[in-house]
Design a protein that fits this description.
2 domains; 8 helices; 5-stranded antiparallel β-sheet; 6-stranded antiparallel β-sheet; alpha+beta; single chain; Immunoglobulin-like; Phosphatase 2c, domain 1
């Protein structure tokens, strides 16, 4: 029997529409679970639609309220508020572009843990008021320096003061000094103890007489035509001057305690400092430390890291040591001083435990090259916040570093102070 030709005309179109309808429905039935986002952190999610070559996503409505954007089948951006968002995926079939349809998905944006912490202002009328953060950038010998200090979340949550502090000074005869301190959380006026420790040690070494004596002895130490005995004697003279500087800090703390009816315990603070000058034979670094804050020297190709100070762990374990304690001025104090000379270096870094604890975890990692490479990769933007510190185009480096120090680390909410000579 001959089949009428109109049957082909009737059957062909419904078959095409059926395929289109079927592919649309199959796309609708896909169960997409968008991975959770976190408020304040970069987010991205790509829709895998290779199995649907005829389906195109036109747009995603309601996405703008999240702070995210959609492009090339990918959601990306940084959501600012936590919420459960209902998103409508508007799509079409390439053979039926005029008739778009909607597929609904959900996106959960978790609260930023930082938002759970209050930021209560400290009392501006209180004795020894201190700003919540401070920063400095400038020259340091023939290199540059950036230092930032930020109140920790634990202190901000309770409206307490930043207890860390720092001071940087250009000194006579091309010497430079940077000092960093961490006031004890248990000390009622630790904020003043830390401030006083840094400015007083820098003040002591601003004396031309002190620096000239140090410099004359440095020349003896690193000049080859001097005997070993002469060099040893010169080292003793340098350390004696460094010792006098530390003692000067202790006396300044005693004086402040007496004048303000405080005990020395009220001013408990750690202290580290580096006194630096470039000579014809290299950079001389004189340093001291009491407490658990490290001073680290990174060489030019990251092949060697030196921890320059003795931290109050290991040999000095059994309790944190502070500049207010007379017992630090015993026979062991000589081991707290170091005289170093290097041809060049990439970075000289001083930090408080607010940086050291979350980023290095243990003391042995402070001399581990891979840990330091990871640390500087972090500074270069390899972190959850994508916070980058630019050491090349460094006009805004202090603000960048302050932003970086706001990183989240569970259980680590102490004040954060970081000084980098580069």
């Amino acid at each position: 029997m001959k089949i009428p030709s109109f049957y082909f005309g009737i059957g062909e179109k419904p078959m095409e529409k059926g395929i289109i309808y079927k592919e649309k429905e199959e796309f609708k039935e896909i169960h997409w679970v968008l991975k959770n986002a976190n408020a304040g952190k970069f987010y991205e999610f790509s829709f895998e639609i290779e199995d649907f070559p005829n389906i195109k996503i036109k747009t995603i409505t309601n996405l703008e309220v999240t702070g995210l954007m959609f492009e090339n089948n990918r959601i990306s951006g940084t959501p600012m508020s936590n919420n459960l968002y209902h998103l409508d995926i508007e799509f079409f079939h390439i053979e039926d572009k005029e008739n778009t349809e909607i597929k609904r998905v959900q996106l959960l944006v978790n609260i930023d843990p930082k938002d759970l912490w209050k930021n209560v202002p400290a009392d501006k009328e209180a004795d020894f008021y201190k700003e919540d953060e401070a920063s400095f950038q400038g020259r340091f010998s023939d290199k540059k320096i950036v230092v930032v200090s930020k109140r920790g979340r634990s202190h901000a949550h309770e409206g307490k003061f930043r207890e860390d502090d720092f001071a940087v000074n250009e000194l006579p005869s091309d010497w430079n000094i940077v000092s960093v301190s961490d006031g004890a959380g248990s000390a009622t006026m630790a904020r003043e103890g830390s401030r006083l420790a840094t400015i007083s040690v820098n003040e002591f070494f601003s004396s031309p007489e002190v620096l000239n004596e140090i410099e004359n002895n440095i020349e003896i130490i690193y000049t080859s035509d001097n005997s070993e005995k002469e060099q040893d004697g010169a080292k003793e003279h340098v350390i004696r001057r460094l010792y006098e500087g530390v003692l000067y800090v202790h006396h300044a703390l005693e004086k402040t305690a007496s004048e303000n009816n405080l005990s020395m315990n009220d001013l408990h603070t750690t202290l580290i400092f580096a006194l630096v000058k470039k000579f014809s034979f290299g950079y001389v670094i004189l340093n001291f430390g009491v407490g658990d804050c490290p001073i680290s020297l990174v060489n030019t190709d990251f092949s060697e890291i030196k921890l320059l100070n003795t931290m109050d762990v290991g040999e000095f374990s059994g309790g944190t040591r502070f500049m207010t304690m007379k017992e630090i001025f015993n026979d062991h104090i000589v081991s707290r001083f170091r005289i170093s000379c290097v041809e060049d270096f990439s970075y000289l870094v001083l930090m408080t435990d607010g940086i050291y604890d979350p980023k290095f975890l243990t003391e042995n990692k402070l001399e581990d090259t891979e840990s330091w490479k990871t640390f500087f990769n972090d500074l270069n933007g390899v972190n959850d916040d994508l916070a980058k510190v630019n050491f090349i185009n460094d006009t805004e480096i202090a603000q960048q570093l302050l932003h970086w120090t706001d990183f989240w680390s569970r259980g680590n909410h102490d004040d954060r102070t970081l000084a980098i000579i580069y």
